[in-house]
Amino acid sequence: GESVGLHLPTLSVQEGDNSIINCAYSNSASDYFIWYKQESGKGPQFIIDIRSNMDKRQGQRVTVLLNKTVKHLSLQIAATQPGDSAVYFCAENNQAGTALIFGKGTTLSVSS
Amino acid sequence: NAGVTQTPKFQVLKTGQSMTLQCAQDMNHEYMSWYRQDPGMGLRLIHYSVGAGITDQGEVPNGYNVSRSTTEDFPLRLLSAAPSQTSVYFCASSTPGQPQHFGDGTRLSIL
Fold first, then answer.
1. Which residues in chain B are closer than 8 Å to A100, comparing Cβ atoms?
2. Vertex B95, ends B104 and A92: CA angle to 5°?
3. Average pLDDT of A44-56?
């Protein structure tokens, strides 16, 4: 079936370091991927998305890379700040494109 | 714009009680969805809707009902609450092909 997963449940970095959060997906037909950030007590917040016709997309301090050959997605955060501490989820569209399938999340902890 | 609004924020129920979780969006989004989030399991899709009058089941629909009589509202009903339904519930909305916007959740405990 369809599923999206993450490689590591936790990641600890120092302020100013670059962070890389990884995600593996199983459905080779998936064509849309999204990264969300979830802070304690809040709903998931959109960070960046990428479609399957792209390999890389950049936002402000964030970059998403998509490797369709190995079905791997990553989120890179440059110059990580304490405010980046949160749980990060990757998600993909379901087959109909009407809802999302989420991975289990990676908790990013940033120490200053 | 308020975005996606969920009420209540917290609720405690007894086993067997029924209740409705409310979700409203003011962005004129066609798509709306309900997810539940349990520790260590990410978000799982319960039900979704692609427009008024149209709903469909997600990954974990048992024990929940939905309806979509207007574009703005998508309530989730628990007919007879069970302890296994203790969770955090999130509602989301989007236009087709765009990222989903989430509410801040309803934290539900069933005793």
1. 33, 35, 43, 45, 92, 100
2. 70
3. 96
The string of pLDDT tens digits covering residues B29-88 is 999 999 999 987 789 999 999 999 999 999 999 999 999 999 999 999 999 999 999 999
Q: Chain-centre distance of CA A78, in angstroms?
A: 14
Q: How far is B61 from chain A (nearest CA, A)?
A: 14
Distance CA B92, CA A19 (A): 28
Half-sphere exposure of B21 (CA within 13 A, CB side): 34
Side by side, the strands of the sheet bearing B64-66 are B4-7, B19-25, B76-78, B64-66
Confidence grade of residue A1 (pLDDT, cut at 50, 70, 90) = very low
Number of neighbouring beta carbons within 10 Å of residue A20: 14
> Amino acid identity, residue A66?
L
Confidence class of residue A5 from pLDDT cuts 50, 70 and 90? low
Q: How far apart are CA A66 and CA B77, in angstroms?
A: 38
Give strand ranges (E) for chain B: 4-7, 10-13, 19-25, 31-37, 43-51, 54-57, 64-66, 76-78, 87-94, 101-102, 106-110
